[in-house]
Write a structure and sequence with these properties.
Order of helices and strands: HHEHEEHEEEEEHHHH
Shape: globular
Strand order of the largest sheet: 1-5-6-7-3-4
Length: about 230
C-alpha cells in the first residue's frame, strides 16, 4: 500500500507540473501568484465533498502530504485555487498530531490525475491541497481498530489478485465465490467495529455502512475515493 500511495503522489505531482507548463508563471520565493489562468482552470473542477467533510477533524497528514501552508489568510485563497502557494509552509512531518478536516475535492477533467483534497486544521491555521496518499485516519494504529482493518485488508488483497489476473466479474463462479468471501470478511469487520467506543465507533460503523452502500464489498478498490477508512488499508 505504501508503494501505491507514493505512486499516487508522484502521479499528482507530474499532472500538476504538466498543467503548469502549459501556462508559465513567474514565481518569487516569497510570493507565488494566486491567479489561475483560463488554460489552467479548464483542466480541473473543485467541488464540495459532503461524504468526507461530515466527519470533521479526523485526519492526520503523513510524509506523503504536500507542504502545509501556515496562516488563516491562506484558507480563503486556497478554496478555489489549488495553485496558490502561501509565503510560509511547514513540513507534514511536524504536524503528525494535528487533526485536519476535508473541505473540497479537485478532480481533473481532460487529463489523468489523482484527485486532491483541500484540508484545514481547526481555526484554519494549517491548510493545503493534497492527494489522499498524504492523509490517514488519526487513530488508524489503534489496537482495537486493527481488528476491523484485518478483514478489510483481506478483501483488498483478494480484489487485487483478481484485478491483476483480469479474471471474470461477479457473474462468474469465481466472481461469486470472491464476493461471498468478501461479505464474510466485511461482516467480521462490522462485528469488531460494534465493539469500539464513542466517536471512533460512530466513524468506523458509518464508513462501513457507506462502503456497503457504495458496493465496496464487490470491489473495495473502486470505492476508496469517498471513504477515509479505506484510504488507510495497507
Amino acid at each position: 500500500m505504501k508503494s501505491i500511495k507514493i505512486l499516487a503522489t508522484l502521479l499528482t505531482t507530474v499532472t500538476l507540473a504538466t498543467l503548469l507548463s502549459t501556462a508559465p508563471i513567474t514565481v518569487k520565493a516569497s510570493n507565488y501568484s494566486s491567479n489561475v489562468t483560463a488554460n489552467q482552470k479548464k483542466h480541473y473542477v473543485i467541488k464540495n465533498t459532503p461524504k468526507l467533510s461530515k466527519w470533521g477533524y479526523v485526519l492526520n497528514v503523513n510524509s506523503s502530504a504536500l507542504p502545509i501552508f501556515v496562516g488563516k489568510s491562506n484558507y480563503q485563497k486556497l478554496l478555489n485555487n489549488p495553485y496558490f502557494k502561501g509565503t510560509k509552509s511547514v513540513s507534514p512531518k511536524r504536524l503528525k498530531n494535528v487533526r485536519f478536516k476535508i473541505v473540497k475535492i479537485m478532480v481533473f477533467k481532460d487529463v489523468n490525475g489523482t484527485p486532491e483534497y483541500l484540508i484545514t486544521s481547526k481555526n484554519h491555521k494549517y491548510n493545503t491541497w493534497t492527494p489522499n496518499a498524504g492523509l490517514q485516519y488519526y487513530d488508524i494504529h489503534s489496537k482495537y481498530l486493527q481488528r476491523v482493518m484485518k478483514p478489510l485488508k483481506k478483501i483488498k488483497e483478494r480484489d487485487l489478485r483478481v484485478l491483476n489476473r483480469k479474471t471474470a466479474g461477479k457473474e462468474s463462479v469465481s466472481g461469486q465465490k470472491r464476493i461471498v468471501q468478501n461479505k464474510h470478511d466485511f461482516d467480521l469487520a462490522v462485528k469488531s467495529a460494534r465493539k469500539l467506543k464513542g466517536n471512533q465507533r460512530k466513524f468506523v460503523l458509518g464508513s462501513l455502512h457507506q462502503m456497503k452502500q457504495d458496493d465496496g464489498i464487490r470491489n473495495v478498490m473502486q470505492e476508496k475515493q469517498n471513504n477515509i477508512l479505506l484510504w488507510t488499508i495497507n
